[in-house]
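Good morning,

Attaching, inline, the backbone tokens for the sequence recovery test we're adding to the shared suite. The designed sequence is right after.
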């Protein structure tokens, strides 16, 4: 839910910024244009051959709002489809051929009740090799081979149902990837009030079994003297520095950070991509 709200905010920010930028562009062009007496003020054009919008021009309109990665004619007549990327957020906005009207996406077909244009998406973040090497393995629950040649980090919340589903897939993964070490970092979310104390207890006991009890809905003991706050706080700080904004989040050996649940087949495919990319 948190990621969805961030994406929506990103789209709205683009729309507001483009409206201002487009307005400024039109004011600049207004001095160069004249309208014959009695002519219509607004003229609609649906023919793409009569109009053009280059990436450079779109980049100027979207300046400061993100990188324009693609410009093309939209499936909806009279509109350009402009793809904008800001860090790992990618969204699509629409400009009319006259570059006066902004339409936020996605656009839906009334008959099919389906989008005819791409919705906003989260793109994987890529963590650099140098930053990967700096990630501490302490304050982690370890799965798989303790000294495996390949390391994966998983940020999880003991009260997150999708984290529980992913955990079952991770158990399958380490059984078919014998040289993989998975370091599980506790990342309790504010929306789960009891998760922070559970994370303290799990790390205090350094217990994979305790984590699995939490995922199963079993009650954990209250934090004791050994269940310090610092290990959980350090994991929260680490995740935030890497760009983790929800759970589960999976950091692959290549540095690719992927958000959300994945089944074991998909996890293995992503690991294979890591091997091919090296």
């Amino acid at each position: 839910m948190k990621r969805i709200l961030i994406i929506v905010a990103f789209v709205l920010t683009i729309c507001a910024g483009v409206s201002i930028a487009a307005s400024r562009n039109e004011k600049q062009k207004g001095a160069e244009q004249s309208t014959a007496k009695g002519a219509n003020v607004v003229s609609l054009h649906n023919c793409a051959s009569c109009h053009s919008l280059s990436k450079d021009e779109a980049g100027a309109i979207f300046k400061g709002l993100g990188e324009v990665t693609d410009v093309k004619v939209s499936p909806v007549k009279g509109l350009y489809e402009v793809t904008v990327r800001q860090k790992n957020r990618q969204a699509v906005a629409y400009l009319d051929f006259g570059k006066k009207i902004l339409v936020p996406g996605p656009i839906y077909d009334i008959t099919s009740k389906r989008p005819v244009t791409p919705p906003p998406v989260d793109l994987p973040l890529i963590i650099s090799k140098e930053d990967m090497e700096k990630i501490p393995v302490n304050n982690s629950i370890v799965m798989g081979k303790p000294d495996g040649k390949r390391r994966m980090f998983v940020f999880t919340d003991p009260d997150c149902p999708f984290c529980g589903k992913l955990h079952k897939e991770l158990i399958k993964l380490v059984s078919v990837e014998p040289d993989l070490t998975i370091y599980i970092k506790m990342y309790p979310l504010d929306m789960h009030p009891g998760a922070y104390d559970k994370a303290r207890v799990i790390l205090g006991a350094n217990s994979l079994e305790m984590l699995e009890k939490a995922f199963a809905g079993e009650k954990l003991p209250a934090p004791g003297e050994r269940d310090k706050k610092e290990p959980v706080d350090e994991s929260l700080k680490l995740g935030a520095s890497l760009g983790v904004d929800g759970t589960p989040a999976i950091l692959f050996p290549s540095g690719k950070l992927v958000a959300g649940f994945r089944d074991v087949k998909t996890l293995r495919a992503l690991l294979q991509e890591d091997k091919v990319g090296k």
